[in-house]
Amino acid sequence: MYLLILFSIILGNLLSGVSSQVFIKDIYAHQLFNSSGEKIGKYYVQVATDPEIPTTGQHTTIMMRISSTDGTELSDVPISIEITRNGEEVDKIPQIIVTNGHHELDYKFLEPGNYVFYIYVQDLYFTGDTIKFTFNISTLNPFGYIFYSLISFAVVTPIVVIAIIFFTNRRRNKKIQENKSVEK
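Above: the chain's sequence. Below: its structure in token form.
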């Protein structure tokens, strides 16, 4: 009996190991987190970034998900991407094919600001037209206003506290000397 249980466990582990290595390729269990989505026609496109708020000068992964409005992920969809900042074209990514409904793009933002990503989806499934999706992605300077504010606060606060203590002690000493001179 124990030998039969041991044999079934070993055989089950072998088969599950083989099946996961042979049959499973790419799995996307859920929609993108922290994403922005837009529906046009029968398409739903989502865009998310990692990190959530991109920093200038560092690589950012831009994750895209293309599906139909009923949630079915579409495969082999040709897209092209145009990236603008302040209305000026910054970058243009030629046509790529999105497989399994997901695509990841590594991108490096060079300057802080608001970037607009125009994703042009070639509608092979429904109308044959090109559909334009628009997504805003804001970036931060790694030494942004919060950092400078914290440094300023850290420098100014001790100076103000020391000045208050100094002038309070000086005033107190003056009053003590005035009282001593009145008593004499």
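The helical segments are 2-22, 145-183.
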